[in-house]
Write a structure and sequence with these properties.
single chain, 37% helix, 150 residues, 6-stranded mixed sheet, Nuclear Transport Factor 2, Chain: A, alpha+beta
Length: 150
Amino acid sequence: MTSDIIVAADLGAARARNEDVWRRSSELLYAGEIDQFISHWCDDATYEAALPVSGLPAVITGRAALHAAFTGLVAGARSIAVRDVRFHQTDDPDVAIIEERMVAELADGGRYENRLIIRVTFRGGLIAEMLEYYGQFAHQDLLRKLGFAS
């Protein structure tokens, strides 16, 4: 085998592993199963908003803080779904870019819809870092509706 074939096989395996972790963790989040969702993250994992908005720290670090933040998100929604998911494995076996459109029906009868681009770094089969880009006006409005921002 040439090294190009080995690299392609390694990246194919990395993509399958990373996409599986992403899919399983996302399904748990949208089902409101936060304890199980957070088990797919490293203990020292970080979530970072590329476009910070009032009411949400730009960087959230550690499972306990991530648990609290994501619990707040799902508590304010009757349902959360994603559409148009596109998973892009990069040449780095530990980094993927995910595109998706999130749609949430909120507990107050409102609706949240936003397009997201997320750079995810994996470590040891877990999520180590997330850098999320989203439409910040829609996200700010969501935080207002959930009572995290004025």
